[in-house]
Design brief:
alpha+beta; four-stranded antiparallel β-sheet
Length: 166
């Protein structure tokens, strides 16, 4: 894990996707072939901190905390801009363009972002709770999306208000 000395908070992201076919289905081969190269790009992207992997594996596709047909992706970034750059300005964009080949269309929120203290590694349980919050309440400083984001200061302020009972 890479930790910036100056950062007080990092951005966590969690993505839940429903597979169209099992990962060993030949129709999923192009997706599976993209995983290692994309993970290598992510690992080397400025601002990357950490990503979830299954024990003994190079990715998280073996984890199925939300159901057998659901795969997860979770990572932590120094800034929202770093995550945006990886997501939309790297080879990852090619995967996004082809996502309908591999994943079912989402009918509810499937991606959630939230701020964590620098050095904190979120759990899958924490991520599922944040996704449930987003689905139940819409974007808030505790659970948001790229389209409706909050700064770490706004998230911290909202947390202080909750802690103070205001």
């Amino acid at each position: 894990m890479t930790v910036s000395r100056h950062a007080l908070a990092h951005l966590a992201q969690f993505n839940l996707s429903t597979l169209r076919h099992p990962l060993d289905d030949p129709r999923m081969a192009p997706f599976v072939e993209m995983l290692d190269p994309l993970n290598t790009v992510a690992d080397g992207t400025p601002g990357f901190v950490w990503r979830l992997v299954s024990e003994g594996e190079s990715d998280a596709t073996g984890l199925r905390p939300a159901g057998q047909d659901e795969i997860v992706n979770m990572s932590v970034w120094e800034t929202q801009e770093a995550l945006w750059d990886f997501t939309y300005r790297s080879g990852h964009l090619d995967l996004l363009r082809r996502r309908r080949e591999f994943f079912e269309r989402n009918v509810e929120a499937h991606l959630v972002l939230w701020w964590v203290p620098a050095g904190h590694i979120p759990t899958v349980g924490e991520a599922l709770e944040r996704l449930a919050e987003l689905r139940a309440n819409g974007p808030t400083p505790r659970a948001f999306t790229f389209a409706s984001s909050y700064t770490s200061a706004e998230a911290s302020q909202a947390q202080d208000v909750v802690a103070d009972g205001v």
